[in-house]
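Honest question from a wet-lab person: if I give you the sequences of every part of a complex, can you actually get the arrangement of the whole thing, not just the pieces? Trying it with mine:
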Amino acid sequence: MYRTHILVCGGTGCHSNNSGKIREAFEEQIKAKGLDKDVCVVGTGCFGLCAVGPIIIIYPEGAFYSCVTVDDVPEIIEEHIVKGRLVERLLYHEKALGNKAVHSLAETNFYKKQTRVALHNCGVINPERIDEYIARDGYQALIKCLTEYEPQQIIDIISASGLRGRGGAGFPTGRKWQFAKNQVNDTKYVCCNADEGDPGAFMDRSVLEGDPHAVLEAMTIAGYAIGSHQGYIYVRAEYPIAVERLKIAIAQSREYGLLGDDILGTGFSFDIELKLGSGAFVCGEETALMTSIEGHRGEPRPRPPFPAVKGLFGKPTILNNVETYANITQIILNGAEWFASMGTEKSKGTKIFALGGKITNTGLVEIPMGTTLREIIEDIGGGCPNGKKFKAAQTGGPSGGCIPAEHLDIPIDYDNLISIGSMMGSGGMIVMDEDNCMVDIAKFFLEFTVDESCGKCTPCRIGNRRLLEYLEKITTGKATMQDLDDMEQLCYYIKNNSLCGLGQTAPNPVLSTLRYFRDEYEAHIKERRCPAHVCKQLIQYKITDACKGCSACSRKCPVGAISGEIKKKFEIDQNKCIKCGQCIATCRFGAIIKE
Amino acid sequence: MKKSIADIMAIRQSMQSEIILRDNVDAEKEIHIIVGMGTCGIEAGAREVFNAMVDYIEEHDLKGIRVTRTGCMGDCADEPMIEVHVPGKEHEVYKKVTAKKAVEIIKKLAK
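Yes, you can. This is the full assembly:
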């Protein structure tokens, strides 16, 4: 019986910050002190507050240590484990409380406002031990389904819960399953979309890393509900930790007879195979994903026929996102009413968001639908760092749009986001402050979609390339107002004529920035000026009268563009300047500005 | 080895006591016992006291009692000392606690 549990985050964020070494150091030193009978060291999935990783939590106190390094390990063991004193200096300090040290994770503002349903095991269990999953009611939902429910009852429960697809489009999950169940066919497939491709989204990765069995269990339930015996998880090869943990989880489930023939002696058989995607964004689109599993080049195909009728290998197929599956077991265990009690009228339950960009608490948050953007950004996310002003949040990645400050108080759900020109998407939320140029942001996302377009249909392949060229013209100050109108026309043309979701949504970042920040576009065109001082061609570096003539900048300038006499004001030669910004970083007097 | 439903239930039962430690969601509603485990406390037998309480709680599957450690409580001569926090009540401090006395205290609290 262990009296102390040291939980070390093993999510990708903390892992790349050396948390693996920290875990080894704990294990070694606990052993060296002869405490290994009392203390166990557990590698877990993501805790969510990636900004202050590597994170360590020690129970029973629930002490929450942030930014831990290998060198801190002896002190934690000596003070906390042996003497029972918290190591104040490593505790998480809450800025909102005047930088006061917070003792336990549950006390932080970041966690208080969250409701963890899909993430309920992340950061609590060791994802590589099936027994810990079972202890937290793992596989209870499957047992309940196999022993108490008819397949139709399961679909009725999922439908009644109001669960909608968490991958972006928000299609009702129960209805999707019903379509597949209604098909008469010996062979049906259950697929899981773990090809999380949006820049800035990492919730599916964290669920797979922190709670892989939840996805396996839910897929097995789906298999029983629609009458399928084979599942596929299509996961990005760029997620090595998630792939590794899925492999371990599948092996453990097969060993326990939770996957394979005659599951738990109930006569139902189901197995799951992993398919690794090689990172093409278009393979997150359902028909392209299935084409890729079949072994072909990942290109979308026209719908209908929909996958529920004719999907993988021409058989009826359901395809759900990782986060959708992570909700299934909880709905079965707690009931449809419980799930439907959370959220808004048309969007039930919770949603995970990956906070990134100009925000203090970068990380993963799960909130009930209907929470306002302001609560997410200001209360949970801690606002923009360095006191900068919030400008907009981009949701839905390259398919979505931006939400400006005026809509901060809108309750977040599928329909509200669409009504303001954005979309839920998979849940990436990139926060931008006053230093971000919205035209530049639109250009960034469009560069991404141009790279990722598969090339099968012309509107997407050529249309988006032309669109990007318009944006380049604008950011270099060569565009006319006519170009702006033509560009808007082209956006609608691409949306209406592309084959799959990638092309149909690719112009969204341009349209939504145009809708809310048209003044910025016009400033670029009419005044040849970038209001946020981002677009290099449109800004000039200038030395003000605050210059002391110390010559530090001229020595730093890589192209020798700065000259002057010592103790007199220096000058920048605009023809030579490459706008690298090194002079600003060097100047100790704040005498260089961007205009 | 393949498991039956009964096997899974058994694993769940036995593993739950192992990870119950990680549940501190309802921390405010729990009885909280703090054992002074500075050098003085450990020397006087605090570790045995701590272990005895944790073992008793596990054996009898008691819910809502959390045992944690702290450093020296200051009154080294009276160690091992424990502090008992019952929600809604003034906290109590016990001195010169032994493993036997500690179990008695827990029994009283569990009633």
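Two things worth pointing out. Chain B has one domain: 26-110. Chain B has a mean pLDDT of 84.
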